[in-house]
Structure formats: C-alpha cells, structure tokens
Amino acid sequence: MVSGIVGLPLKGTAMTDDISAMFHNPLEEASSLAKTADSCILVIFGATGDLTARKLVPALYNLFREGQLPPHFACVGFARRDKTNEMFRQEMFEAVSQYSRSKPIDPTLWKNFQEQIFYHKAEFHEDEGYESLDKLLKQLDSDLSTKGNRVYYLSTQPSFFPLIVEKLSAHQLLYDHTEGHSKWSRVIVEKPFGHDLDSAIALQQDLIKHLHESQIYRIDHYLGKETVQNLLVFRFGNSIFESLWNNQHIDHVQISVSEEIGIGTRGRFWEEAGMLRDIVQNHMMQLLSLVAMEPPINFKADAIHDEKVKVVESIRPIPLDDLDQHAVRGQYGPGYINGAPVKGYREEENVNPQSSVETYVALQLFVDNWRWSGVPFYLRAGKRLPKRVTEIAIAFKSVPGFLFQNDPTKIESNILVIRIQPDEGISLKINCKVPGLGTIIQPVKMDFRYGSYFGMAPPEAYERLICDCMAGDGTLFARDDEVLASWKLLTPILEVWSKTPAKDFPNYPSGSWGPPAAETLISRSGRQWRLI
Question: Cβ neighbours of residue 395 under 8 Å, at least 6 residues apart?
C-alpha cells in the first residue's frame, strides 16, 4: 500500500474516512463556524497611542493572516501628529513585529496588508479634519468597495469621547439606524466609561444624542479572552457542573487579578483612577456576572446582557458604616519582584508623594438571589504582587467530616479553577487515595489547557472583539445598564475612600500578596485566599 506517511493509506479511500473520524481536528469545525465580518473601514482615533501599536494593529494583522478580515477593508489612523501613510505603515510594521502573537511577520502578507492602512492628520476639535476625513473615506469606499460601512474606535482619553461623536454626527459620518440604511456605523468606546455613577450617566446621555445603544460597543478586553468566552459553554453545556452551580454545593467563589508590574509611566492616569475604577468596576464585575448569571433564553446578545444585569443588581449593597469589614484597600511600597528591588507607588513618576490612591482592592460581596443566597464572592486585585494571574476559583463545600474523621490527612475541598491568563485553561482539584496499603488521601489536579489541546495559542482578545463589532455582534461588549449598575454598587465606596484618606499607606511591600487586612477580610469566615 502506497501512502504519503508510512502506514497510512492515500486520501479518498474508505479507510482514510474512518481515520479522519478517529482523529478529528476541532479547529476545522471552529473555522467553519467563524463569524463573517462585513466590508467596512475602521477609523482609529488616537492612532499614535500605545494601544494602537500594542494591540489594535497586531490584532488586525492576525485577523488578515487567518482570513477573518472582510475582503474589502481599510484601516485609517486619525491623530494629531504629522505623518505620511508610509511613515505610519512603517511604525505599524515595527509594532506588529514586536507585539503580534504570530511571528515572524510574513513579508508577502504584510505587503498586502499594509496597502489597507492609511493615516489622517487632524485635531479632534477641528471641523476641517472631519470634512477631509469624509472625503478620504468616500474615496476609499470607491477604491476598495467598502460599501460605506464604518467602525470608529475611540482610543483616546475619555474626555474626548463626547466631542468626537458630536463631530462625527455633525459631519454626517454617523448613520441613523432607524432609516433602514443598507450601510451601518458603529462606535467602539474604550474603558473607562465614566469615573463614577454621575459621570457614566452624563457620558451615556452625551452619546445617545447621536447614537442608538445598538451602535455603541463598550469594549472590555477581558470579555474577548477565550476562557471567558468559554464560561457560558462550560456552565450551560455540561450538566455535571450546572447542576452543582448553586448554594447547595458551592461554599464560596474567589476572583483574583494579580499583576507583577507597577504603574510604570501611567502615574497621571492612575492618580485619577485607582484599582477599584480601573480593574474592579469593569473587568471583575464582568467576570462575576458571567459566573453567577442564570441561563439565558438564547445566546443572543440581549438575552445574555439581561441575565448579567440581574446579577449586578442583585448584589447586596456594601454597608458603608462598616466598610472596612467588607472592602479593603492597599498601596504597594518598596520591595522585590523576582529578586530585583522596585519602587513603591509614591515614588513612581507623576505620583503625589502623599497619594492615597489604591493599587490593591479586596471585596466581599453577596448575590442575594435564590441560586447564590449565603455564598460569599471574594474579589481581589492588585499591582506588584508575586505573579501575573487572573483566575476564577469555585470552592465546593467540604465532605461530611465523620466519613474521614480517623484519617490524619485533612480532606481538602474540591476547587474548580478557570484560568483567564496566562496559560488559559480549566483545572479541577479532586481527592484521591495514594497507592499503597495505607489510606492516605491526596489532592490531585485534572488540567485542561487551550494551547496544549488545540496545538495553538488562542487568539488575542482584541482580535475577537474587533471582528465581532464588524459582524454586528455585541454579546462580548458591555451594555449601558450593566455599566451603570456596576457604578451604582461601587461609587459609594469611592466616595467614602475619597473623604477618608488612608493613614497606613503604603501598607504592603511589593512582592507580597497584599495588605494584612485582606487576609483578615476572608479569614473572619474561616476561609483563606487561594495560593496561586
């Protein structure tokens, strides 16, 4: 028998059909079910910023490389600096070479891809810039057959969001979605969406003067991560877990966002933001709502958003007169990361030497509904912690003690861990007997990792989210009522903290797991933070 590989027959025989069935490649099926993005032009406002170079253009290149960009597409960078198309393309080539998940860059692919990249110099407030942008976009529609469809990505300071949208509307660069246009326009808004409840409401009112809610895509890159997307399938596609997903079987839930890095050069931003605004209000509340939501009636965007909103609105308000028992804030001081000395937060560039801005937050929350009544949700997020990890840990209730009361080994609770980053995957800790004549019981881990099973790293979050926006799928973006419900819960904490500056900052050294008060927060109930 002749074959391309020793021992395997040629394609087209009955035997190869059987072999194909045995060695099924799940990526083939996934590829056939991929979304189809509409032809369009993506305009990036603030295109000379860090986000464009590190995330957005590398994401576009990888979408192009894998055939996920629409066949008729263009990207226009809109910024204030004086550049030519060639200069901008060269800068983006260098950025993609450094930050793309797929390396090295294919010269032929890049040559074709860069022909779709353009640069437009203008100030955000000048009408002339939008008039010339309109002419450029119409010319690209004619040259590239992009059909008049538009995605506007606001990668700027939040203070520019209302101005840019107002100018786009004034120059008829936004379409009225009610008029039945054959073409569409959408706006992607980067976080933060406001800095408290009042500012979020004001921003929403500014945007809906010119846009319908269905045209606003509030991006949270955590929602584009493969493991986060898989949460719904994992929960509702596996009856063995969904049947246990309640207060009868789950003891508590821990959501952790740990970062080794400090604030770097973002001192001015961080002085106005802090950890509660930058990470907890958006990323962590999104993760909590996905863990705790009820099954949606379908997998359409609105059905999923409806259930997520119910979760956030069901969270018990934190008692402000006893805030320290439910919310802990911290700030890193000097210490060591991977054996190297690092500065404290107050010593960082553009930071007030007496700053009371938090770089660490720990919360205890309760979702007051039938499914989760009595189950505490513990959230912690911090900078300058020992390692970079984002995970969700579901701690199941302990087995009845009398079964193993004579065993010297403590029976540990089962823990289901959903790892968001790095090494996306899912693991389950169970108890097993050690081989031998004794009855020693030891926890073991069942581990699944996307990279090793599928043989490739999962796509970057921005790849999925940009593609979804071009396809008109808002499932993985935040809806207005989700954002406002989150701000309603957390704004009172921010107000108390602003009126009562911390007296003990810095209260944890860099390289530790946070302030001692965070340990006290969880240990009051006889629990402890998971070692990650």
Answer: 250, 251, 252, 253, 254, 413, 414, 415, 527, 530
pLDDT value for 457: 67
Does residue 342 carry a pLDDT above 80? yes
177 in active site: no
Q: Tens digit of pLDDT for each residue in 97-141?
A: 999 988 888 899 999 999 999 999 999 999 999 999 999 999 999
The secondary structure of 116-173 as a DSSP string is TEEEEE--TT-HHHHHHHHHHHHHHHHHH--TT-EEEEE-S-GGGHHHHHHHHHHTT-
Give me the residue label for tokens 């861990």.
417
Query: CA-CA distances (angstroms) from residue 499 to 324, 384, 488?
Result: 14, 26, 18
Give how far the C-alpha of residue 460 lies from the chain's centroid of Cα atoms, to the nearest Å.
Answer: 10
Of residues 227, 232, 215, the one with CA closest to residue 461:
227
Residue 335 CA to residue 509 CA, distance in Å, equals 5
CA 398/CA 250 separation, integer angstroms: 9
For 200-232, write each residue's pLDDT tens digit. 999 999 999 999 999 999 988 888 877 787 888
DSSP-derived letter for residue 422 is S
Cα 506 versus chain centre, distance: 28
Confidence (pTM):
0.86
φ, ψ (nearest 5 deg) of residue 81: -70, 150
Q: Which segments of 415-501 does DSSP mark as H helices, in order? A: 450-454, 461-470, 480-499
Question: Integer distance in angstroms from the first to the last C-alpha of the chain?
Answer: 53
Rounded Cα–Cα distance for residues 230 and 237 (Å): 10
191 vs 209: CA distance, rounded Å: 20
How far apart CA 398 and CA 353 sit, in angstroms, is 47
Mean pLDDT of the chain: 87
Query: Who contacts 445 (Cβ-Cβ below 8 Å, separation ≥6)?
Result: 427, 428, 429
Contacts within 8 Å (CB) and 24+ apart, 51-54: 51/155, 51/190, 52/77, 52/92, 52/95, 52/155, 53/91, 53/92, 53/95, 53/99, 54/95, 54/99
Judge whether 162 and 211 are in contact, CB under 8 Å: no
Inter-helix orientation angle 161-170/127-144, to 10°: 70
Nearest to 190 by CA among 347, 36, 54: 54
Provide the pLDDT confidence category of residue 25 given band limits of 50, 70 and 90: very low
- Checking if the pLDDT of 9 tops 80, the result is no
Range with the poorest average pLDDT among 234-238, 273-277, 288-292: 234-238
Lowest mean pLDDT among 24-33, 181-190, 416-425: 24-33
Q: Cis bond leading into 192, ω under 30°?
A: yes
Which of 72, 283, 305, 326 is labelled catalytic? Answer: 283
Residues in the chain: 532
Label residues 475-487 b or e (16+ Cβ within 10 Å = b): ebbbbbbbbbbbb
